[in-house]
Design a protein that fits this description.
alpha/beta, Signal recognition particle alu RNA binding heterodimer, srp9/1, 2,3-Dihydroxybiphenyl 1,2-Dioxygenase, domain 1, about 35% strand
C-alpha cells in the first residue's frame, strides 16, 4: 500500500479572504469559489473549505490548532521583507536556530501559523 500526501485543508468562515491572502503570499492562482478553493504550491494542494458546509463530508472541531505549515524558501530575510511590504504582520522575526536553519512565522487572516525557513548555504 502506497501513501501519498496530497493536500492540507483549512476550514474557514471566509474562503475568498484566505484565498486572496495565500495567492498574494505564494504568487499563485487558485481554482474554485467561495465554498471550496484550491491553490497548488509546489506539489502540495492547499484546500480552503467553507465551514458549516453540509455539501462536504469533512468533520472537524472548533478550537486552536497545533499545526504549523512550513515552507522552504531560498532566502528567509528576503521573504520576510517582501511579506512586510505586502502588509503581512509577522508572528516572529527571522531567527537562526542552533541547527543552522533560519526561519520566521506569520499568521494568515484566520490565525493559522505559517513558517518560512531557509537551510544553511553550503560553504
Amino acid at each position: 500500500m502506497t501513501h501519498q500526501f496530497t493536500d492540507t485543508c483549512y476550514v474557514t468562515n471566509d474562503v475568498l479572504r484566505l484565498r486572496s491572502f495565500y495567492e498574494t503570499v505564494f504568487r499563485g492562482q487558485s481554482e474554485g469559489d467561495e465554498w471550496h478553493s484550491t491553490l497548488k504550491i509546489g506539489g502540495l494542494h492547499m484546500v480552503l473549505l467553507l465551514e458549516n458546509n453540509s455539501d462536504f463530508y469533512y468533520e472537524y472541531e472548533d478550537g486552536a490548532s497545533n499545526t504549523i505549515l512550513s515552507f522552504n524558501v531560498d532566502d528567509t530575510d528576503t521573504e520576510y521583507q517582501r511579506l512586510l511590504s505586502l502588509g503581512v504582520a509577522p508572528h516572529t522575526k527571522p531567527k537562526t536556530h542552533p541547527w543552522g536553519t533560519r526561519s520566521f512565522q506569520f499568521k494568515d487572516p484566520d490565525g493559522n501559523i505559517i513558517n518560512f525557513r531557509s537551510r544553511p548555504k553550503e560553504g
